[in-house]
Amino acid sequence: MKFRQTLVKATVGTCALYTFFDIVGHPAQVVGSSMYPTLHGEDARWFKRDFVWLSTWSLYKCSPGTILTFISPRDPSSTYIKRITAVEGQIVRPERLQQLFTEIPKGHYWMEGDNPVNRNDSNVFGPVSSSLVKGRATHIIWPPNRWQRL
Amino acid sequence: MNKPKGVKLVWRYTKGAAVFYCVAHCISRFVGELVICSGPSMYPTIHDGDLVLAERFSIANKNVQVGDIVGCLNPQKPRELLCKRIAAKEGQPVTSHLLPSGRVPIGHVFLQGDNHAVSTDSRHFGPVPEGLVQIRLALRIWPLERAGWLSSHWFWDKSNQKE
To answer: Which of A24, A30, A124, A126 is the most buried (most CB within 10 A)?
Structure first.
């Protein structure tokens, strides 16, 4: 009987944690150097990389400058963190795509990394649908000396 | 044991509701959910107002195959679920004026409704990223006289998946 109670409590606790992560927000680690001056994720040791807090509120009407995480349009199993540089209706000039000017379609964002040297962003895969957006980075929560709002 | 009263009773009900909400959220996120389909875009297969059981295991298992009926987020309107059939996956040939190369780009799927005349699908907004595919529709349970399987394979069955 005791064992069953513990099992039920653990299950409910896990569900409550996932629900909290989904409807409020969750921490995540930055991996990669594409957001370099803002977020540090280039170190191979995990404890040297930044942790950010991702809020799941107000993801769909963001203005340029917001940092968002989204599922990669090319690979559904990887998640990217980039900054919005243009929103729907604006006209951008991609660096590497063939066409010279692109108008961003309805419900899409133009996401770019802060690091001009190493980035894999909308210049490569085009505008990102806002349905792919999973979170909005609000704070750097680790390391403590760089704790700040974004 | 005496009956709880007042604030204690309210607290107990609130806790019960919170636990119910959390468990329901986790089931709908990891297992599957009931979907009420609306609209005419899948007409001969799914009628307007049908109740369908949908599962998420095939998405987690990366076992979405050509011919499956999936629920996919609208790339232009967030939080709107579209119900379409997968016509082609990445690298497969497709005839569409939106795709000059004639092939579905990497990581994308080409969606098409069964009702070609009225369906708004990849022929209008182009191929969608596979990350937008949320659930796979498996079993129609209402109305009862048309209840039956919508999918031809189980979520673990990868045997007829082409490389």
So the answer is: A30
Q: Distance (Å, rounded) from C-alpha A25 to C-alpha A41?
A: 20
What is the domain partition of chain A in residue ranges? 27-142
Q: Does A108 touch chain B (CB under 8 A)?
A: yes
pLDDT tens for chain B, residues 1 to 163: 567 778 999 999 999 999 999 999 999 999 999 999 888 888 888 888 899 999 999 998 888 889 899 999 998 888 888 899 999 988 888 888 888 788 888 899 999 998 888 888 888 888 999 999 999 999 999 888 888 898 888 888 887 765 4
Does ipTM surpass 0.85 in this model? no
Structural domains for chain B: 7-149 (2.10.109.10)
Closest CA of chain B from A118, distance in Å: 21
Distance CA B74, CA B41 (A): 14
Q: Which two tokens stand for residue A63?
A: 């203005």
End-to-end, the C-alpha distance of chain B in Å comes to 64
φ/ψ (deg, to 5) at B154: -80, 165
Find the residue in A nearest to B74 (Cα): A131
Neighbours of A80 (CB within 10 A): 24
Q: Given this structure, which CATH class describes domain A27-142? A: mainly beta
- Closest CB to A12: pick one of B22, B77, B78: B22
